[in-house]
Amino acid sequence: MDIDFTGKTYLVTGGASGIGAAVVEYIATHQGTAVIADLNDEVGGALAARFPTQLRYLHTDVTRLEQLEAACELAETAFGGLDGAVNSAGIGSLGTVADMPVEEWHSVINIDLTGVFHACRAAIPLLRRRGGGSIVNIASLSGVRADYGFAAYNAAKAGVINLTRTIGLDHAAEGIRATAVCPGYIATPLTAGTGMIDGLLDDWLGRVPLQRAGTPEDVAQLVVFLLSPAASYITGTEIVIDGGLGSSNNQPNIPAFFAAM
Ligand SMILES: NC(=O)c1ccc[n+]([C@@H]2O[C@H](COP(=O)([O-])OP(=O)(O)OC[C@H]3O[C@@H](n4cnc5c(N)ncnc54)[C@H](O)[C@@H]3O)[C@@H](O)[C@H]2O)c1
Fold first, then answer.
1. What distance in Å separates the CA atoms of residue 124 and residue 82, rounded to the nearest whole number?
2. What SS3 class is residue 182?
């Protein structure tokens, strides 16, 4: 799929790494421009340096609204405005309601949910000035259904999905679309630790009907479609991209059970 992003500018939070970086790379290699808003100065700066006329990197903590406003301002001064935002900054977290440190709950909600609110809040005035735009929030399959031991992450990602629906409703009349993308297991630095725990990655991928991990580029293809005019009738909804992982209701595989008898 080839989308021409000539004349279009995007804010990409978490754009230094993984899914966000794959989106940035697609935009830059398809004639678009973007501001990478991330904390990882080394990696984000290096990505921006590869496309000096099309990318800018700004050290941005998504828990700070004023830093996202500065990133949007940079999009305006460097590229003349903003056509959309891809909100991919996020962290993982393990822990149950009973045992997780309370500070960790607040930190995950601040980054994974409030960070998305901040980015949308900063971007919407610029999108209005353009007469519309597209916001793509990276939620998770873990926002659609629950995991064992992911209390804060499950809550934050479910929040992102419903926040996206409300943005879709509130800003449709202004030509602003909002969609949430819900990945399953994607091989990125965020999930790299899985491979270090004996048997965990095999167990995880063994549950994926398409029998492989997703790549950042798999997700980027969906995101850039949602940014593009080809998705002009899609708003206020979520789209799962998980190789089929979330399609089972977790009951036994009866045909496989009989076949093994
Ligand atoms: N990898 C997966 O399997 C998977 C699955 C479902 C959802 N997701 C979601 O996709 C998004 C991207 O994840 P990824 O796998 O590409 O991870 P990643 O770790 O490769 O990238 C996340 C980026 O977010 C940045 N970041 C973290 N905290 C930040 C903050 N406070 N301010 C600004 N930037 C910050 C990091 O520096 C990093 O560059 C996340 O929201 C994650 O929850 C990932």
1. 9
2. strand
Counting residues of the chain whose pLDDT is more than 70, the rounded percentage is 100
Which residue has its alpha carbon closest to ligand 1 atom 12? 88
pLDDT in tens, 73-119: 999 999 999 999 999 999 999 999 999 999 999 999 999 999 999 99
- Site to substitute for ligand 1 among 11, 13, 62, 88, most atoms within 8 A of C-beta: 88
What is the span of the domain harbouring residue 150? 9-243
Is ligand 1 within 6 A of the CB of residue 168?
A: no
CA dihedral 39, 217, 172, 81 (to 10 degrees): 50
Contact assessment for residue 182 and residue 143, using Cβ atoms and an 8 Å cutoff: yes
Q: Domain for residue 260, yes or no?
A: no
CATH of the domain at 68: 3.40.50.720
The answer to whether residue 228 is domain-embedded is yes
Determine the atom of ligand 1 nearest the C-alpha atom of 15: 39
Q: Is residue 248 part of a domain?
A: no
Model pLDDT for residues 132-161, shown as the tens digit of each residue: 999 999 999 999 999 999 999 999 999 999
pLDDT confidence bin for 195, thresholds 50/70/90: confident
Give dist(CA 103, CA 42) in Å, integer. Answer: 28
Is the pTM higher than 0.70? Answer: yes
Indicate which residue's Cα is closest to atom 19 of ligand 1: 190
The answer to whether position 253 is within a domain reads no
Per-residue pLDDT at 246 = 97
Cβ contact 89:21 at 8 Å: no
Number of domains in the chain: 1
